[in-house]
Specification:
single chain, Rossmann fold, elongated, binds adenosine-5'-triphosphate, ATP binding, transport, ABC_transporter-like_CS, P-loop_NTPase
Length: 313
């Protein structure tokens, strides 16, 4: 079977703002269907500009973008109804309750059946856990509740794709957890989720795939597990010299010994770490602990950009 076509695909997508600022530079992005795709980069790296082009809100200077297999911005009218978007905070009326805000959004959709409106709004409120607070005025909502209400608005109709620009920005840890849990649930139902973030741990926690941006350029993209390859092999043993010799014989590189700890480069994917452990034991090395510590996405990012990263936000 042919691989399903990507849900989002860009070719050479470029945006130069009128002032001359090159915000996005030759972006080739490919977002697989069913993924939770993290669009990662520090502030100012071009994430919002890319999202605005994907949603047909601004025109690219050059290059192309397709969403759900159709060209943007030309196909905006057919594509956007299938896309739920939360960009730069939802536009809410503070003097209306959460429920009334959703009723208003639903009424603005000409394809929404008025007879099922109340049920639809009720389901969306349930979905994001806001049913108990549905009667409260939106201005009394916490930031996290406002974000969830925005998500509820995006979920009033079935969507194939959700695009969320920094959905946890400004939230406290509890609010962040709630949004992340919701994203996981939505993805479990088969919705592709594309979310931007400047938080590495967020991408590691919720995303299956990621792209890393810096200064308008794409540094890398792919499955999150693959982006964070590398790492270290660590063996704890009362026989460190023997362990180092055996590992060397097995072709392991970067070996260092410190007391009872032998560390080395993690074996390449073709070598099973269990075989290394078995070789140590066969050679009579007494192994107290054996493990491969995978590098984090943070290590990968630092290696790619040569820059540190604001991990905690
Ligand atoms: N309307 C605009 N006119 C001119 N320059 C802009 C405009 N919008 C953004 N920029 C510039 O383009 C670059 C990329 O900005 P963008 O907002 O896309 O980045 P970002 O990764 O989304 O960052 P943030 O998370 O801070 O929004 C920045 O240097 C920014 O100053």
């Amino acid at each position: 079977m042919a691989a399903p076509s990507p849900v989002i695909e860009t070719r050479g997508l470029t945006k130069r703002y009128r002032g001359g600022q090159l915000a996005v530079d030759g972006l080739d992005l490919s977002v697989p269907g069913g993924s939770v795709f993290g669009f990662l980069g520090p502030n100012g790296s071009g994430k919002t500009t890319t999202i605005r082009m994907l949603m047909g809100l601004i025109a690219p200077t050059s290059g192309t973008a397709s969403v759900l297999g159709r060209p943007m911005p030309d196909a905006s009218r057919t594509v956007l109804p299938e896309v739920g978007a939360l960009i730069e905070g939802p536009a809410l009326y503070g003097f209306l309750s959460g429920r009334d805000n959703l009723l208003r959004f639903d009424r603005a959709d000409p394809t929404a059946d008025p007879r099922t409106r109340a049920a639809r709004v009720g389901e969306a409120l349930d979905r994001v856990g806001l049913a108990p607070a549905a009667g409260k005025k939106a201005r009394a909502y916490s930031l996290g509740m406002k974000q969830r209400l925005g998500l509820a608005a995006a979920l009033l109709r079935p969507r194939r794709l959700l695009v969320l620009d920094e959905p946890t920005n400004g939230l406290d840890p509890q609010g962040m957890r709630e949004i992340r849990a919701l994203v996981r649930e939505l993805a479990a139902d088969g919705t592709t989720v594309f979310l931007s973030s400047h938080l590495l741990d967020e991408i590691e926690q919720v995303c299956t795939h990621a792209a890393v941006m810096a200064r308008g350029r794409l540094l890398t993209q792919g499955p999150v597990a693959g982006l964070a390859t590398g790492g270290r092999l660590a063996v704890t043993t009362p026989d460190p010299a023997d362990a180092a010799r055996v590992l060397k014989e097995q072709g392991v590189t970067g070996i260092t010994v410190d007391g009872d700890r032998v560390r080395a480069d993690a074996p390449p994917g073709t070598v099973d770490a269990a075989d290394l452990n078995a070789a140590l034991v066969r050679a009579g090395v007494r192994v107290r602990a054996f493990g491969v510590e995978r590098a984090s996405l943070e290590d990968a990012f630092v290696a790619l950009t040569g820059e540190g990263f604001d991990v905690a936000g």
